[in-house]
Every structure is written in structure tokens, then in C-alpha cells.
Design a protein that fits this description.
Elements (H helix, E strand, L loop, with lengths): L7 E9 L2 E2 L2 E2 L2 E10 L1 E9 L5 E7 L6 E3 L3 E8 L6 E6 L4 E6 L4 E4 L24 E5 L4 E9 L1
Parallel strand pairs: 6-7
Antiparallel strand pairs: 1-4, 2-3, 5-13, 6-12, 8-11, 8-13, 9-10, 9-12
């Protein structure tokens, strides 16, 4: 059986708009992703005081797991008007936390790798590892808008 889904092109525009002393100082940047044939979008309520898994990634599709190599765009937007949320990006052996302010977004444009945590102060060439899980934590009940495009 052949699929009847026709892939599309995702266009993501990031626009900053500000006028300082009568001069426009904003910009617009556009990212175009071809051959998108799967979208996953949902609103997730993260309960207070618990780390909750938002996405799992692997090499094959399974229940609740996405193929990391197919992820081309991922956005998590904090829909709260007051509270922050902490996003955890976990690989095989390392992870990092990123705080997202109320109304802010966290964006990835690949699912194949993540940053490597390092415990020293030297700046070296990064060694990236596979992305396995993205989780969220907040001290308060908070809603997240989660959007992912895959090829």
C-alpha cells in the first residue's frame, strides 16, 4: 500500500521588531525545511515539582518514540504568563538544562545530536552525542505547546 500523504515544505519565520529613536532595528530570519511528511503537535500540562518526559527518540518508531534522524524541527513554547520551565536535553551519557521564560520558546533544528556537557573550564571542539529524551520541569503547573516536524 502506498501512502497518500504528500510531503510539504515547512517555513519557520523568526521576526524581531523594535523601533529605537525612530529607527527600525528588527529583522526576520526564515528557515525552510523540505520533504516534511509528519507533524506532531500537542499541548502538554506539566504538573508542579515533577520532571515529565515530552519526547523520546530512537532509531525506529515505537510507542511514544520518534526516529531521531527524521526530526528536522522541534519547538517547545512556554504558554504560562508568569512561570519559567526548565527543559532537559538528554543524550546517552550527558544532559543539559535550559530555562525558558514565560512566553518564550526553545527550538532545535535537528534530532540527531546534542551538546556534550563538560566538567572543566577549557573550550574544546565539541563531541556531540545522540539525542535520546527531552523532558520538562517546573515548580508550578505549566502548559507547553510542543511542535515537531519530521521527514
Amino acid at each position: 500500500m502506498a501512502s497518500t500523504i504528500t510531503s510539504g515544505t515547512l517555513t519557520v519565520k523568526l521576526t524581531e521588531s523594535i523601533s529605537l529613536n525612530g529607527s527600525e532595528m528588527g529583522s526576520t530570519n526564515t528557515l525552510t525545511i523540505n520533504a516534511v511528511n509528519e507533524i506532531n503537535q500537542r499541548i502538554v500540562t506539566v504538573d508542579a515539582g515533577n520532571v515529565r518526559t515530552l519526547f523520546n527518540f530512537g532509531g525506529t518508531i515505537s510507542a511514544g518514540e520518534f526516529v531521531r534522524a527524521n526530526v528536522k524541527y522541534l519547538r517547545i513554547t512556554n504558554k504560562d504568563d508568569t512561570n519559567t520551565v526548565s527543559i532537559n536535553i538528554r543524550g546517552n551519557a550527558t544532559n543539559c538544562w535550559v530555562e525558558v521564560e514565560a512566553g518564550g520558546s526553545f527550538v532545535l533544528t535537528t534530532g540527531t545530536s546534542m551538546m556534550q556537557a563538560d566538567d572543566d573550564t577549557s573550550v574544546d571542539t565539541p563531541v556531540l552525542e545522540d539525542l535520546n529524551t527531552i523532558s520538562a520541569y517546573s515548580a508550578n503547573v505549566i502548559d507547553l505547546d510542543c511542535y515537531m516536524a519530521l521527514t
